[in-house]
Design brief:
homodimer; globular; 378 residues; two-stranded antiparallel sheet
Chain lengths: 378, 378
């Protein structure tokens, strides 16, 4: 299967600015720059509210699963000593808490949703790392590498079950509705991983396929994070659906930026190697967009990547060889198209917020988080 | 850790009848033998009601997960051709459907519960087979063996998510309550697998530990099957709890019989090798009970199994060598104790039914299913 969607390919091939080490994504939207929202504080608040409940939930796991999970979350090191690992950006908990406020409820109302979403996200990391053979995550050895494949499977399963437990144990009607939305997101997440695995074995992936996969892997759970607090706060389906749309689009913007950082990100900021996604032969958005664009650079890139796929020497490629591929992707317009795609999704995300009423302050914060997602450097 | 519970060990060591090829478990209880319940028909009805809904749910999975799941359920063979595989005894669907009737609802009301429980059961089989390295199930190669470890993980995850989707999509308050009970059962199932894995690496397991593990791995989900239909039918917590108790005890009886069949079962009936559990060095109930019994046979068995654990020649052991170990287990009282344990759990299961009111006909059918579970030969 190799049907490229010309229509959705790069619009301005060859116009990329070369030599920059960070992606070109737009400045914050006017709506947010007018207000003074402190995004760091927003993220910190989500983390502060969710982490104690998350830790208490993980503590319920029977040994040795509690220890394995604590290692995964970075709370202890491989030897079992307390650690203060990188828990990630905590965008999802911040969104889940804001989501409750969007429905007029207290931020705390969103916490079981925030924790459930984090548990599902981490279940998928545990299983995906094993399936993909990834040995490192957040600068540390992955769970299957330290504790073995069985523990990665088992603890992933346990976090999955725990997500529904945390959500449903309040016994409220809202919790049942929230769990239903979480189920939809989880199924999409699994579909996305299935697509990711199947694309690995294919020479060509279309832009549409790549976007669908990223929507499943990143968009769906972010959509759930953005609606789950509101559902727990008693929001109607129309409100929850609009918030989901915001979250889904935000997820696509997030992933487009991730794909840019995966190639042109600053290693000091991302903590990844240079040209990280190219080294892993990832068919990420800039690559598929460049291949779909047509033209001399696109064709040269296609021939080069086809040769690379057969090369036995790929692992010993020099910095320059990867840089040459990155330059071709850029020349074919893959970098610009992806940055523009992030902008487009950012815009539609914010438009979704206009479909519903919510406190102005909450809207500003959601806009600020959307801005943060597209301008971040890690 | 090697604390044996003498008090819960075999009560009548050395009195087992040797040379029988089937376990000694009591005849059907008087209550059921007085009525004329056709258990085969009951099982068939559960299967007939649940299978179409189960197949429709599995059909929702994105390729290739739908195919992998269909292979697992025995609906197609490894080449993708339609097959009519052994779908198991279908005790759980029959119980879930009866459970709805116990609450005065129509059998159909229990179907989403029956399907959800089957999906959770099969998620655990997919993952457990991979973790345990089991290459065969129901006379066929396991999923990880045919489709690879990633598909076993992924499709297991998908069935897990599908279980909650099927249950919650009705959107009823009862579905939320049912999902909550399913969560408890799923968490216990995972705890049981964690215990099973950790016991593999230990020389000694107590009878209490073995019972706890079997309660988690078999009892909890059977408990859920027995209550989920009633919950969907609007039963109160007291009714659901009593049905859970019946199911949990029934699960322990079921597992005790399974453990007897795992050593002394007729290979033609079970489809397993002779002395199957001994070949796999399983620390099943007859073994741990025999080791806990004390006395000359128990001590000889302990020394022999300790030697076996170090033996490099274990895989080439003859029929006679396994038969000698089985005879020692029997002489130490492990076989009798396990048969008695099945009887005890069977009795307490039926006693739990007396705690609540239900139509007499439904009660007779639940009793008949309990009888079936302890007298079955496969």
């Amino acid at each position: 299967m190799s049907v490229d969607l010309q229509g959705t390919g790069p619009r301005t091939p060859g116009t990329a600015t070369r030599g920059e080490s960070v992606p070109t994504v737009p400045p914050a939207s006017p709506a947010a720059s007018e207000t003074a929202v402190d995004v760091t504080e927003l993220l910190e608040r989500g983390r502060t509210l969710a982490t104690p409940v998350l830790r208490a939930a993980v503590d319920r796991l029977a040994p040795p699963m509690d220890t394995v999970a604590a290692y995964h979350f970075g709370w202890i090191d491989a030897a079992g000593n307390p650690a203060d690992g990188d828990g990630g950006k905590a965008v999802r908990p911040a969104l889940a808490v804001l989501s409750a406020q969007a429905a007029g409820a207290a931020p705390e109302v969103g916490v079981p949703g925030a924790v459930a979403v984090e548990l599902v996200h981490n279940f998928s990391l545990l299983h995906d790392d094993l399936m993909d053979g990834d040995e490192q995550r957040r600068h540390r050895d992955t769970v299957w590498k330290v504790h073995g494949p069985s523990q990665a499977i088992l603890v992933g399963d346990a976090l999955f079950a725990l997500a529904y437990e945390v959500l449903l144990e309040t016994g409220s009607v809202e919790a049942g509705r929230a769990a239903r939305r979480l189920t939809t997101a989880t199924r999409a997440l699994i579909d996305g991983q299935a697509q990711d695995i199947s694309y690995e074995h294919r020479e060509r992936v279309t832009v549409a396929e790549c976007l669908e996969m990223e929507g499943n892997k990143t968009g769906a759970l972010l959509a759930c994070a953005c609606s789950i607090g509101a559902v727990l706060g008693g929001a109607d389906d129309r409100t929850a659906d609009a918030l989901e749309k915001y979250g889904y689009r935000l997820g696509l913007a997030f992933q487009a930026v991730d794909d840019l950082l995966g190639i042109w990100g600053d290693p000091d900021a991302t903590g990844k190697q240079t040209w990280s996604d190219l080294r892993q032969r990832k068919k990420s958005l800039p690559v598929v967009a460049a291949l779909a664009a047509g033209g001399p650079a696109s064709e040269r890139l296609g021939r080069l990547l086809a040769e690379d796929a057969k090369s036995s020497d790929f692992e010993n490629f020099s910095e320059e060889e990867f840089a040459a591929r990155a330059a071709l992707i850029e020349e074919a317009g893959g970098r610009d198209w992806t940055a523009e795609e992030a902008r487009r999704q950012h815009t539609t995300a914010i438009e979704a917020l206009d479909e519903i009423r919510m406190p102005g302050e909450v809207r500003d914060q959601l806009v600020a988080l959307a801005d943060f997602v597209v301008v971040r450097k890690r």
